[in-house]
Amino acid sequence: MLNSNISTNEAATTTSLQPMGFTDILDAIFSLYRDHFRLIVGICVVYFVLMLGVNLLKGISTFFFSNVGLLGVVIMIAFITFWINILIALFPVGALLFASSQAYLGKPITAGAAFRQVTRRFWPYLGSNLLYMLILGLLAITVIGIPFAIYFGTRWAFYAQAVLIEETSVTNALRRSRELVTGTWWRVFGILFAIFLLAFMIQTIFQFSLLFGFGLTEVISGEEGLLKMFQRMFAPELTTWDGLANYMIQGFINYVVTSLILPIGIIGSTLLYFDQRIRKEGFDIEMRVTEAAV
Fold first, then answer.
1. Neighbouring residues of 32: CB distance < 8 A, sequence distance ≥ 6
2. Is residue 14 included in any domain, yes or no?
């Protein structure tokens, strides 16, 4: 049965909608990334600038307060910047999600339009994210609760799509995701796990290679040993100017790579969201009917 809560903003599409297997989803991820590269990178640049800016401010502040002995302030800075990172990441992540959905459906979309949609839906989007993190965070506090966190994390995997694409409320977003996942939990979990594992591996390889390559120049020049190089590049101490410089280099490399790899997981989860709608609700048939009516 077709869902009656589907947003009227989902208009006609020229995309060929059909059920996809795991390999089909992977192929669609990289095809969509390639075909809409400028759009995706445009959004990722915003993520890079915001996250790098906060990271640099954190490094400079930590360097200053560490050297004057205010360790309590350093801990407070780490706590505050953690939540600031989460908050500001919501905008580019949400924009990537909405942009990839519109691109998949064959609709014209710009980075500005994607950010406007996130801004327009910001409060329910923020509320659903906080509710999701709060529930899963409380469940994951204990070892016993971790399996439950994984279960509900998968069960509610499409809450953001429900808020931004279908424009539903915070509580309805969790219910909507549950409807799409019910009966196919293992399939959804397996595909999402594989997609994010692939993205994690690609990101780790690139980050490690770039950081190692940069640090290796010091070893070749004879200025330091290999062990010292690893410590300097992967765990810089923010108590010296050299440590601060390494921290900034590390942050720059990490956020460049993260910005380019981030869309893989977001596009993948959005494609799986549509695949679930096609399989369970006949979304592809609905779109054909809409196209014919138009």
1. 100, 103, 104, 267, 271
2. no
